[in-house]
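Example 3.2
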Amino acid sequence: MDSLWRTTACICSSVGYILLSVSKRLVDIDDDLLAQARLVAGTSTIKATVEAGLRRLVDDDVTERHVRRLRQGGLDLRRAEEARRPLLAEGG
């Protein structure tokens, strides 16, 4: 079971206040796998490596959903070509 501590920070900027939520977790990670992931990701810290892996996982899911949509006919190439054409002024 992983331990969880939630930290909330409030940052004041010229735009306003930004609320950040960060969770600290205690997990067991395979040292060899972590070392390999660090090399692949080009990261220097465990945190950066884990964040890079999580981002990659989420990005891959988004990409897969887009590919599925496109394969199911979600892209009308005729409309794409129409969108590329310059708009002509009326009467011209």
